[in-house]
Amino acid sequence: MTLPTTEDRDPQSIGLSAKPDEEVLAHILQRQIVALEAARDAMPQIAGAAAALHAAAASGGKIGYAGAGSAGLTALTDCLELPGTFGFPADRMRILYAGGAKNLMTLAGVHEDDSEAGLKDFQESGLGSRDVLIAVSASGTTPYTLSAVQAANDAGTETIGIANNADTPLLREATHAVLLKTPAEVIAGSTRLGAASAQKAALNMMSTLVALRLGHAVRGHMVNLVADNEKLRLRAQRILQDLTGCTPDDAAIALQSAGGRVKTAALMLLKNLDVDTADSTLELHDGNLRPFL
């Protein structure tokens, strides 16, 4: 029988157990590299999805993620990382994960088949017509994820579907379909390997492009971070020194006055402004520091 790629067996992986450790590891790594090429092939689709994500973020909309199993974990990681990396407001982020938080320790597969839960979780998410839902499913057929996407479509929420099998329901249902055509896995069906690597790469590409367009990433720096621990404070000071040419002491003082907000501190240093004036000036430019550099 013909199997979907995510369930098929990779002929190159047969007999791996008889080979030396480093040869096995080299093969696993090489198959990951090949899988990542799927993101390159999907570049136009990823760009279209990023444009939808940008529109929602720029207009004050919410960003939701939906998924189950390992694909859901990939989506969850992206959702959790964006506020810290690029300053996406945490109160505008939503995660719909099959089985909820209690399933994160067991990853029980039964929740993937729960279509009613997908509908219910979407309805409780508060996502609507100004928002976007990113749904990730390696197979492209996960009932929970499909149900969430269908509910989103009915609510007027723009949808992005990321799948690793062609011509699947998720790609047909989503407003923006991203096919990551990864090869068969080293271990058949273990989509936490190549498929998940390609999914993570595509999500990274989308969010980083949006951050650049919104001015959350400037000159290779994450300028929208809030420095709330020692590591981030030191990073923020280095960013301020690079962007403004100030001394380490001036960077530390400005950062403290700005409550750890890098953009505000940078504008204070660049234009000799107080905190309130720097904040209001940034608001007039949609929070984008780039025009002042």
Structural class label: alpha/beta
Could you estimate the helical fraction of the residues in percent?
40-55%
**How far do the termini sit from each other?**
60 Å
Strands side by side in the biggest sheet: 2-1-3-4-5
Radius of gyration, CA atoms, in whole angstroms: 21 Å
The main sheet comes to: 5 strands, parallel
- Stretches where pLDDT is under 50 for at least 5 consecutive residues are none
What's the SSE pattern? HHEHEHEHEHEHEEHHHH
| Content of β-strand | 5-15%
Q: How many DSSP helices?
A: 11
Mean pLDDT: 94
| Shape descriptor | globular
Short structural summary:
The chain is 51% helix and 10% strand. With 293 residues, the chain is α/β, with parallel strands linked by helices. α2 crosses α7 (194-214), α8 runs parallel beside α10 (262-271) and α10 (262-271) crosses α11.
Map the helices and strands.
Layout (H helix, E strand, L loop, with lengths): L20 H21 L1 H16 L4 E5 L1 H18 L6 E5 L17 H11 L6 E6 L5 H13 L2 E6 L5 H5 L2 E4 L14 H21 L2 E2 L2 E2 L7 H15 L3 H10 L4 H10 L3 H10 L9
Helix pairs in contact: 1-7, 2-7, 3-7, 4-5, 8-9, 8-10, 9-10, 10-11
How would you describe what is shown here?
It is a single chain. The chain has 293 residues and is an alpha/beta fold. The chain contains eleven helices and seven strands. It has helices at residues 21-41, 43-58, 69-86, 115-125, 143-155, 169-173, 194-214, 230-244, 248-257, 262-271, 275-284, and strands at 63-67, 93-97, 132-137, 158-163, 176-179, 217-218, 221-222. It has a five-stranded parallel sheet, sandwiched between helices. Strand 3, helix 5 (143-155) and strand 4 form a beta-alpha-beta unit. The longest helix has 21 residues, at 21-41.
